[in-house]
Amino acid sequence: MQNETIEETTESTAAIAPISAAAGPLRVLVDWLALLTCLVLLPMLGLFASDLWQRTDFRFFPIAILAFLFFALRKFRLVPVEHRWRSYWSLGILVASSLAGLVSALAVSPWLAGLAVTGMCIGWGLARLGDSRWHEIVGWTLPLWVLLALPVSDAADVSQLLESSTASSASVVLDALSIPQLAIGNLLQLRSTSLPASLVCRGLGSIYLLLLCTTLLSMLLRRSLWIGGLTVLSLPLWAWFSAVAHLVLAAYLLESDGPNLLFGARGLAVQAGFLVVTVLLIWAFQITLKNLFAPFQAYSAGQHGLHSFYSRVVSWPTQEESERPGKGKETAPTADTISNSRDRRIELIGISTLLVLAVATGILANYEVFGRSAGKRMEPLQITTEAMQSHFSLESLPANLQGMQRLEFNNFERKSTHFSRNFGAKWIYVVDQQRAEIVVELPMRGFYPLESDSLTVVSRFAEPRQSFEATIEGFGTVLLDDVIVLDDLTGRSYVGYATLTLNEFPPFRTAVTTGSRSLQSLVDCVKLQPTIIAVRLLVEGTDRTSEEERATYRQILLEVCETLRPSLEQLNPR
């Protein structure tokens, strides 16, 4: 009788699914499947890393990856998981992450690949790290979520909104200091020079870098979910305050013949100083919040009903509760462990699905990256001041362009070290006593609505934007967009622009740039955004523009693109 009992116990133990075994690393099937999925996503992750590195504002991403590894490995311990629903959640997250990886290969979306790997880390941790609670595992991946918050195109970059608000706010402060200036968009015009707000809102002043610093600060100090959430929600205010203070101080010193705090090594050091001060202020803000919520935290220490819910929202997870004996441990009776045939079948189905998705993802990802050379979409343009002067000149465009007479030309480089549109070339024309500008903007990442650059405090859109597509030999698909702007000073103006690429991958509009809510435009928001060039045409002081006149202006844009094709191709030789 005793031998039969021992045999039944052995069979019951053997029936426990591999996902909850207490074996070492890479000794359980789910370990190999998670590792396989991450490996087959390496080509897409390589595109993700390359994209971030080429965009200088986001070169801090290795810090986020190292921080994730630090927090995850610090308490890494393989412990068997015997909670049925935790295993179910783990399998569900693993399958969903594998599905996201497959979609990332189909849509050529490095962002989705990053999301898939993040989910894979969470799902694997739930399955194999039984000694760690689920909120701890999710918390370790917070630095990876910061990377997913980085914009995939210039149009989705909230730094541009920060720049315009910084310039206008700095203008108000300088008015109070009796310093003459004028804020135009994200530019602060002083008597002696002009200061782009991007000089203080990008680089070490980036709101995304501040988000990472705040996240790491909250993780190191083990802040509660409530305090951490409020801190993140207040980040735009802290970033705005730091940028305005930096810009006002720099403008005041420039007008007082003082040192320049915006350029060179000194500018970098000052920006780093403002970042450190801002992080210290955020630290003090978190301490204040902790003291404010301390009475509520003590009152809601019960474990029943509303008190339990409020305690988890306000004070959980905290170190004290994590170390409290008998609290929060995910134990379950033997009847709830994964030891019956039905649960076994569910796990086998989930693991088989993981295997199929991983293999399909690997085939598609390698085909897109190596077979179709998806990385060419984001090839950086080798642009320098010398290249602009060599390839663009007054004679690059004809003196007579469909009735418009050429007047002057100039190359320009924006005074910013961290801005997408660093270079440009401008031709001034006149037509029927109206001033017209043709501007080549380069480079940009993804489609960008250039009509927003034409708006000022005294202008608005008079007619909605119209969008078209055309085909030019050598460029392929070209996107054409135009809009009518009504300005209180110059009257009605026509703004049109052509968006093109220098490789075989066509540009595309997204829901962020068009306001469309179609499924395709939403999917395009997370796709690999190509490096593009935009050619803009501005005709000021027009009368009510007919459809025929707008069609003529669009034809001029296409002619300009064809004429400038040799010069543009020399900037990016294939």
From TrEMBL:
The entry's keywords: Membrane, Transmembrane, Transmembrane helix
Transmembrane regions listed in the UniProt entry: 28-48, 60-76, 88-105, 200-221, 233-254, 261-285, 348-367
InterPro entries, sorted: Exosortase
Keyword Transmembrane helix: yes
Pfam families: Exosortase_EpsH
Origin superkingdom: Bacteria
The name this protein goes by in its record: Transmembrane exosortase (Exosortase_EpsH)
Organism: Aureliella helgolandensis
